[in-house]
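Model it.
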Amino acid sequence: MNIVACIKRVPATETQPKVAADGMGLDHSALEYMLSFYDEIALEEAIRSKEAHGGEVTALTLGPTEASKELRDCLARGADKGRVSLDPACHPREPRTTPTPTAATDTARGAELVFCGRQATDRDNAAVGPMLATMLGWSCVTDVIELHIDGTSATAKRESERGIEHFRFTLPAVITCQKGLNEPRYAGLKGIMAAKKKPIEEAEPMLVESATEVVGVSLPPARPAGRIVGEGPDAVPALLEALRTEAKVL
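Modeled.
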């Protein structure tokens, strides 16, 4: 079984972002990067599917050459090979332009299962997985918390506003992964050493012009310092007044 795990290189969650001098994006020289949290779950499910049903896992990403660092982490955890579609300007891209080059790759089209995180932890659009499935013409189940594969068919449970939904579908399919589906593994020393010998391919993708344009980036204003309005029950009137006139939440 050919399995693809789509992953994204995102700024580390503890990083303090800085706006670039031109005001059109973030200063990437000041950022540290990591594998997107939900993509870790997608990678883990791809590896478990390979272990249960055979085949190989390709970790696929769209990004700069530096994204090979995150791909190498995927290889250390159990993926068989990596591929980066080179796009230095991947971060400001809108969701439509991200899955288009991915859907055009022979790696994606030759797969039977494609796993994605439910959303990237930098943009939170939750759009790439369903768009990718649409472009490929495949089944798609989002926010999956349980998955069972039986030959060319599969069943899945997903979380929704109405509760837990159950689906049956045929492969090939795109699955977006939610918390609770699995517990991602860490890379052990053996895996880290083995990853050095696994291949990472760099390819020039078929990029699509974005339909949106970034006109400016700015950080939100700093929060004002907190203050204590009093102590005990006597402070309640002052607190209510501050909530009405200053915070304007009442």
